[in-house]
Specification:
Number of strands: 9
Protein name: DUF4352 domain-containing protein
CATH superfamily of one domain: Immunoglobulins
Strand content: over 45%
Low-confidence stretches: 1-19
Mean pLDDT: 80
Number of helices: 2
Keywords: Signal
Structural class: alpha+beta
CATH topology of one domain: Immunoglobulin-like
Shape: flat
Oligomer: single chain
Largest sheet: 3 strands, antiparallel
Organism: Propionigenium maris DSM 9537
Strand order of the largest sheet: 1-2-3
């Protein structure tokens, strides 16, 4: 029985570590989501972002080589929901050392249900060598 309990605890711990997040309650009684990176957000915001990611896709179609400390990137944003997207704001982050650095905010306005749009932006990548990129949802409205 003891081995089973230890095994279940280890399995649960590995599951949480694999997700890279843990839900805890802070001193104010709010549930917050802690990430392995040291970042945290409220559980309500995490759920809102998760719901958005199920409805809207954003992907990097093309990333050109570095030229004059800039990279030209082409993104494709697809609204998969049945609602019109009023606006959405995304943050493009590049890996700088051990952390990600916000380099550009991208916004999309008035995207109809089922519609896709391609966006091309020039992003400053001064002092950044690699192509390790993250796209993060900042805010949105349907």
């Amino acid at each position: 029985m003891r081995r089973i309990a230890i095994g279940l605890f280890c399995l649960f711990s590995l599951g949480v570590a694999a997700l890279g997040e843990e839900v805890v309650t802070n001193s104010s009684g709010e549930e917050i989501v802690l990430y392995n990176t040291g970042r945290w957000i409220t559980k309500e915001r995490a759920d809102k972002i998760k719901a958005f990611e199920d409805k809207v896709d954003i992907e990097i179609l093309k990333m050109n080589k570095k030229s004059n400390q800039y990279r030209t990137m082409t993104f494709k944003v697809t609204n998969r929901s049945m609602e019109d997207l009023t606006y959405a704001a995304f943050g493009v982050k590049f890996r700088f050392g051990e952390e990600y650095s916000l380099r550009k905010l991208i916004s999309v306005n008035n995207l109809k249900a089922g519609e896709s749009v391609e966006i091309q932006r020039q992003i400053s990548v001064q002092d950044i060598e690699g192509r390790d990129t993250k796209i993060e949802v900042i805010d949105y409205s349907f």
